[in-house]
Amino acid sequence: MEHNERIRKERTWKGRKARKGLQGAVIVTGIIFVTELVGGWLSGSLALMADAGHMATDLFALLISFAAIRFSTKPCTKERSYGYFRLEIIAALLNGIILCVTALVVTFEAFKRLSTPLEIEPVQMLSFGLIGLGANIVSALLLHKEHKESVNIKAAYIHVLSDLAGSVGVVTGALVISLTGWTAVDSIISFVIAGLIIHSALKIIHESANILMEAVPGELDIHDIEKTLLEVDHVINLHDLHVWALTSGVNALSCHLMVDDITEGRNILAAINRQMKAQYNIDHVTIQLEDQADTGEPR
């Protein structure tokens, strides 16, 4: 429990910085949503309306991420000895699903628009698109530094990046329509935006599901870890090695080690804890030592 509390305090400090970035992104995204909604209605642009709808889901997603970070730093309890670390992963998974639904809605509307094209005002579309582009750049910069710390922040960051791609698409579409009058490009760009959203969402869902399934973190190689453990002095064999993540950046390991001198147990464990943290960023290390003499195996 004490070890979990130390990690919680470390994540609380990191969470404060992430919350500031998310707060800024929430404000900016809310402004963009209203601006693009009005702009899409005035200009008749589906790409702009699609981006506004995407902004609405992103605003909701960013609020989920913000709430998850806030609650994930709550202290451990007797019922939840690991605390609320996994709330961030649940939020990331939910955000990935929201992104997929958004992409499907955008695709459906784009197909409808291809069969029944509407008149589009490219100047208004371009003006509102440029406003959205500038604001999305600000949001992306607010979250850029922290997005590697957590899959939850990464999900929020990808939401913002897909918004940025959408704004680029809106601006490009407005320029093409103003130069050529080809309004179908509005729907085509909407398809591209939907594809980008799906691609990002599936990555987030995959990463979140891996953590919830307690898979080996993608940045770690369990065979390398096994080799490192076997190279520790007095360790002669191991079994039941498990490596997983409690949440993004908080890795755990458990295993049984057979040693040739059980009296060196304290030194063995201290050496392993230091090496696992320094080399693999594994914070939680739980090891059961087994004396070779008790197994009857020759030394």
UniProtKB/TrEMBL annotation:
Grouped into one coarse class, the protein's main location is membrane
All copies of the Cation efflux protein cytoplasmic domain together span: 218-291
InterPro entries cross-referenced by the UniProt entry? Cation_efflux, Cation_efflux_CTD, Cation_efflux_CTD_sf, Cation_efflux_TM, Cation_efflux_TMD_sf, CDF/SLC30A
How does the entry describe its membrane topology? Multi-pass membrane protein
Question: By its UniProt entry, which Gene3D superfamilies does this protein fall under?
Answer: Cation efflux protein transmembrane domain
Please provide the record's keywords in A-Z order.
Ion transport, Membrane, Transmembrane, Transmembrane helix, Transport, Zinc, Zinc transport
The keyword Ion transport belongs to this UniProt entry's keyword annotation: yes
Q: Which GO terms describe its molecular function?
A: zinc ion transmembrane transporter activity
* Chain ranges of the Cation efflux protein transmembrane domain: 25-213
Q: Which GO terms describe its cellular component?
A: plasma membrane
Transmembrane regions listed in the UniProt entry = 21-42, 48-69, 89-111, 123-143, 155-182, 188-205
Q: Name one Pfam family in it.
A: Cation_efflux
Keyword Transport (UniProt): yes
> Which family does the UniProt entry place this protein in?
Belongs to the cation diffusion facilitator (CDF) transporter (TC 2.A.4) family. SLC30A subfamily.
The protein's matches in NCBIfam families, at most eight in alphabetical order, are given as: CDF
Q: What is this protein called?
A: Cation transporter
Recorded source organism is: Prosthecochloris vibrioformis (Chlorobium vibrioforme)
